[in-house]
């Protein structure tokens, strides 16, 4: 009986593995390996990856790359109601209205913006996947209850929900991360649930149920691993959205109140009173937000195409 059980388990594992393979034109190569090959030959994916890596390196090496301390005030004697010093020797981008070096604040601001984006996305993925596994794995009344809760969250505009959560939790960095994560939870929950429902009807899942394999082993051993591709793609795209939402909340005054931690959205908010004097104070943070969001979007879109069977050639 043990030998027969081992044979059955191996057969189910083979069917599950086959569900994650590229059947045509790739010689049975795994879907992940095939996607990596496509991404390495895709100039758009490479451009997105380069942008992301550059900003990650800037954030990681901020103390080494920043020419000056981001909170120290300089050139105070030259700051007047109608004049803010621009680029000059030692200050490539000039200073802000309080005399702080703009380039150094942009470099350090990448740390905060990327940190908030990554942490909030991870929180959204974890909680969303937990709800998705409950709904897609158990089904029945559990699926109904979880999905109705998800529908309620989806019915509320994302920015409005983020503002509400941020106000309720208080003005701090952790509240900002949680607020953005709450917006992303229903997206990942519904996405994983739909992917798992599709996988539950696959040959390997049907064979496992016919052989009496326990539901837990089917769900966590086979269905869930083969349902993660769309979640990974959405997580990459959600990073761009999270960074933009973090900047929006900071612009509205709901971000981190600690001025010792520069953040691009907060820099935009403080620059709006000086647009007629030094528009560069708003332009440079906006450019950083746009470029890093573009990098994650390009990479996420190409990753989606690389993992989607409809785009295989």
TrEMBL record:
Which UniProt keyword terms apply here?
Answer: Cell membrane, Membrane, Transmembrane, Transmembrane helix, Transport
Q: Does the keyword Transcription regulation apply?
A: no
Domain named ABC transmembrane type-1 is located at: 110-300
Spans through the membrane: 44-66, 114-142, 149-168, 174-192, 282-303
Q: Which domain of life is it from?
A: Bacteria
Record-level GO cellular component terms: plasma membrane
- Where, subcellularly, is it found? Cell membrane
Could you say which protein family the record assigns here? Belongs to the binding-protein-dependent transport system permease family.
Name this polypeptide is given: Peptide/nickel transport system permease protein
Name the species this protein comes from.
Geodermatophilus pulveris
